[in-house]
Specification:
6 helices, Purple Acid Phosphatase, chain A, domain 2, alpha/beta, six-stranded mixed sheet, 22% helix
Length: 269
């Protein structure tokens, strides 16, 4: 989606906690219209349902949910509709962005109903969340085109007093797996140079690599979240599934003073 330069009227979200927002980060659901579809040794749909059931059992409840791409695997309308229905069981606003397995036009058509939306800028408490599209059609690689970078800079300039979390699908730096590092953000240096100059940016979230990863760029936490079904083996030079890890997700707690605490949780079993 191109950036027109026009500002949209944004209404800040409210939560039960007046000074803190709890964020649930999911990624790489790879839902298929076929309910029996298996990928990397697991049924993607059944794994997602089991993961959400586990989340429902936790005492923590999300104020909002972020899903960072590869929403579907077969790029079908039914896949998106089914995913939207599943995500709505979380009973919280859900915001999604596309990955390399998605069709953005289909995503926007089917993921903008009920509690689920494709808004690119979200205000909550003293924070803003910026959702970027790093996809290149018919490519596994990622890139933030000029319109995405302009939108990011617009958001950062629009609310300089707010702390910022930036979401995209592709990793903006090498993560230690050579075969996956070939598919990182192509213009990562340009992206990191932009955010490194912004004192309010606190975190970057992504998916794509199906594993937990964390790094630090000055005051910015750089965070990858595991897939909702299966993981790639970390630090592998070639494709390999991590048979020791189940489905995973990430919690983030955003405090109004700019502090960000986060942890990854795993589906037992």
């Amino acid at each position: 989606m191109s950036y027109s330069g026009k500002s949209e009227k944004l209404i800040p979200l409210t939560t039960n906690n007046p000074v803190q927002a709890r964020i649930l980060h999911l990624t790489d659901t790879h839902l298929h219209a076929n309910p029996d579809y298996v990928m990397m040794g697991r049924n993607t749909r059944l794994s997602l349902l089991a993961l959400l059931e586990h989340i429902h059992s936790e005492s923590e409840k999300p104020d909002i949910v972020l899903v960072t791409g590869d929403l579907t695997h077969d790029e079908t309308s039914k896949g998106y509709r089914d995913l939207r229905a599943i995500l709505e069981t979380l009973k919280a606003p859900v915001y999604v962005l596309p990955g390399n397995h998605d069709i953005p036009k289909l995503m926007h058509r089917h993921m903008n109903k009920g509690q689920v939306g494709t808004q690119r800028q979200i205000l909550i408490h003293n924070w803003q969340i910026v959702m970027l599209d790093s996809t290149i059609r018919q490519s596994d690689n990622g890139r933030l085109d000029d319109s995405q970078l302009q939108f990011l800079q617009h958001c950062l300039g629009q609310y300089p007093e707010r702390y910022t979390v930036i979401c995209l699908h592709h990793p903006p730096l090498p993560t230690g797996s050579p075969w996956l590092d070939t598919m990182q953000l192509e213009n990562s240096t340009q992206f990191l140079n932009i955010i490194d100059k912004q004192p309010g940016v606190r975190a970057v979230l992504w998916g794509h690599i199906h594993q937990e990863f964390s790094a630090q760029l000055n005051n910015i936490q750089l965070l990858s979240t595991p897939s909702t079904f299966s993981q790639f083996k970390p630090l592998s030079s070639t494709y390999a599934v991590d048979k020791k890890r189940n489905a995973g997700y990430r919690w983030l707690e955003l405090s109004d003073n700019g502090e960000l605490e986060t942890r990854v949780a795993w589906l037992p079993g």
